[in-house]
Specification:
mainly alpha; flat
């Protein structure tokens, strides 16, 4: 549907603002598409531990507090929580990948990953990247 389509402009007859809003609402899904309305799932959280989850939740609470109060003290608290959470996430991710690489290098790790159908080529690519 094109915005120059006159049938869209004269549907309600209640005024220019309603007509324009109706026209844009009719054209927008065709131009931008329609989302499912569901939130995207976090992709790489398999390595999160309790410390990371706790740090992230504290950071989110500090952000909500800063959004409500809008003062310098809560802003500073949020910045500190953000920095702490970022450091803890980096440490946990590093530890998790370290364990994964150790497991991949072991004999049982190679057996585990090659038992999955279609994973032989992925495992070879991963092992060559680790070296």
């Amino acid at each position: 549907m094109c915005i120059s389509d006159r049938s869209v402009w004269f549907t309600t007859g209640r005024g220019d603002a309603d007509n324009t809003a109706g026209a844009l609402a009719a054209v927008e899904p065709a131009v931008h598409g329609v989302t499912s309305g569901r939130r995207k799932e976090d992709k790489e959280i398999w390595w999160w531990n309790e410390e990371v989850q706790e740090s992230i939740s504290k950071k989110k609470l500090a952000k909500m507090k800063w959004d409500r109060q809008m003062d310098e003290e809560s802003k500073q608290e949020y910045k500190e929580m953000w920095s702490t959470a970022k450091k803890e996430v980096a440490k946990a991710k590093d530890r998790a990948y370290e364990k994964l690489y150790e497991k991949l290098d072991s004999r049982e790790g190679k057996k585990t990953f090659t038992d999955w159908p279609g994973r032989e080529t992925e495992l070879d690519g991963m092992c060559s990247m680790l070296k």
